[in-house]
Amino acid sequence: MYRKQYPGPNTEVEEALARVCTGPHQTRPLGAKAGDTIKPSAILETILMSVKGELPEDQAVSEAQMGAFFAAMTIRKGFPKKTQWSEAEILAFDKYRADLERLMPSEIKFIMQPALGHTDANPDEAVVVKALDKILRGEHLTYDETHRMGKAILNGDVKGALKGAALIGQRMNLESYDEVRGYLDATFSPEQVRKVSVESLTHFGQPFDGATRYFRPTLFIAAVRAALGEPSVLHGVDEMPPKSGITEEKVLHVLGARTDLALEEAAGLIEDPEVRFAYVSQREYAPGAYDLRELRVHIKKRPPWAATEKAQQLFAASDANYMVIGYYHPGYETPLLQLIWERGFQAGLVVKGEEGTSHYALRLGNPSTEERQAINYSQGFRRVGERREDFSLDIDPSEFGFNYEKNPRIETISPEAFASAGMKALSGQKGQVYDRLVLNTAMTDYLFGFCLDPHEAIERTKEAIDSGRALAHLKAYIAKSQP
Predict the structure, then answer these.
(1) Sheet architecture: strand order including 232-236
(2) By C-alpha distance, which of 445, 245, 454 is closest to 354?
(3) Are 31 and 89 in contact (CB under 8 A)?
(4) Which residues contact 247 (CB under 8 A, 6 or more apart)?
């Protein structure tokens, strides 16, 4: 778990944040309907009680929660009429305005009224306050402004209220492409990318908050691809809110592998012909970003980094680089693919997969339409010279012999269950986990152009598993990751 830095979070304010800290068309004003259980007056009373020290520490409203809440209220003044302040919110702020002006710390007063300005405690705080002056007015930042703000927040010497306000504000304003790039490079810059001595390399970018419903096969897919001569790199964390689900790091820990590899050690495993893949924890390559995990709990909604961290490039192969990213919310697929293209990758793929991953379900539901993207919707590009060839399609497992009446789930959701199921599948045990490894490995390789026929891709994937070669690569990784 993360090192606790804030009191709380207060559960009532959490519920309010879930309602008001969203975009211009998704926000649900507090108290707008009769019988609404979340009263804006009660939220302000709770915040004021917390400021006065009248709540126990575990029930207190943290400064990060306050920053997120008041930033949301300020930004919503410029939202469409339907998502602007409700009458109940207007009345509540009028009722408590004097107390808010008297008791709130200066950074919260600034968030409520940006025109007041703010006296900064240090240079990092000054950067964030300058950015907030635009964010709170519903304006976008340039790449450089976003990059500087991101670095300042990651340095840690900024008040929690200002961090919460900036991150929620950017999410509510719907990040521009320059802002997406700024967050990505603030975490790990292109200059830090390490070269590895392999001809090709694929980065897998999955949601850092893990799986809570479906088996997550990324680690085992990397072992299968290694057996096919296709090196991969995975990256993530041990645990991340809000889901705090099963991650690759948790599964590797159960299997006995080290999960604190430095970049140099991971590069060595990728280059090792007996291994050909590696996992790197964000704790090692971006400790400042890793330390923001508790802040994510307090601001309730995922910060902009939740989208960009999946697109992080850590290594570069000598000949060709590939990246596959999972996503859930439509709208992010276009900037993510543009990021991959601009960084010179040979091919890029984004998949609306299970739980926001790049993993295909074993059954396609209703196919995608112009208005709706189905689970298994895939979009990507291949680089031909300097020309970009785009493609988009649904992956229907039934076309390749995977006939399921509904998408199956693994019985137990735990790192131990995932580790056991993955090892059994790599040992050749047939069933839904085996089928997931085959379908996902084969479709990724087919869409990247490693194999021109999808049926051939499936057959060669099965051979890599059934021969025991994939399992051998995973066992070699576990053994060689140790000192």
Answers:
(1) 277-281, 232-236, 200-205, 320-326, 347-352, 377-384, 387-394
(2) 245
(3) yes
(4) 208, 210, 211, 216, 236, 237, 238, 239, 240
Residue 392 φ then ψ, to 5°: -155, 140
What is the token pair recorded at 164?
């919460």
In angstroms, rounded to a whole number, what is the distance separating the alpha carbons of residues 267 and 264?
5
Whether the model clears a pTM of 0.70, i.e. scores above it, the answer is yes
From CA 132, how far away is CA 126, in angstroms rounded?
10
**Rg of the chain, C-alpha, whole Å:** 24
The answer for residues whose C-beta is within 8 angstroms of residue 448's C-beta and 6 or more apart is 202, 322, 324, 346, 347, 349, 382
Angle between helices 40-51 and 63-75 (to 10 degrees): 140
**CA atoms of 56 and 265, how far apart (whole Å):** 45
d(CA 216, CA 170): 30
How far, in Å, CA of 483 to CA of 480, rounded? Answer: 7
Measured distance CA(322)–CA(312) in Å, rounded: 12
CA-based nearest residue to 146, from 160, 134, 159: 134
Give the CA-trace dihedral at 384, 390, 394, 396, to 10 degrees.
Answer: -10
Tokens, residue 288: 């400042």
Contact 67, 164 (CB under 8 A): yes
List, in order of start, the domains of the chain with CATH numbers. Answer: 11-174 (no CATH), 195-480 (3.40.1030.10)
Instruction: Give the separation between CA 129 and CA 427, rounded to whole angstroms.
Output: 55
Pick the closest to residue 222 from 3, 440, 72, 429 (CA basis): 440
Q: What is the pLDDT along the chain (483 residues), one digit of tens a residue?
A: 555 788 889 999 999 999 999 999 999 999 988 888 899 999 999 999 999 999 999 999 999 999 999 999 999 999 999 999 999 999 999 999 999 999 999 999 999 999 988 888 899 999 999 999 999 999 999 999 999 999 999 987 899 999 999 999 999 999 999 999 999 999 999 999 999 999 999 999 999 999 999 999 999 999 999 999 999 999 999 999 888 999 999 999 999 999 999 999 999 999 999 999 999 999 999 999 999 989 998 998 889 998 899 999 999 999 999 999 999 888 889 999 999 999 999 999 999 999 999 999 999 989 999 899 999 999 999 999 989 999 999 999 999 999 999 999 999 999 999 999 999 999 999 999 999 999 999 999 999 999 999 999 999 999 999 999 999 999 999 999 998
Long-range contacts of residues 404-410, Cβ cutoff 8 Å, at least 24 apart: 404/362, 404/363, 404/432, 405/363, 406/363, 407/214, 407/354, 407/361, 407/362, 407/363, 408/362, 408/432, 409/213, 409/214, 409/215, 410/214, 410/215
Separation of first and last alpha carbons in the chain: 25
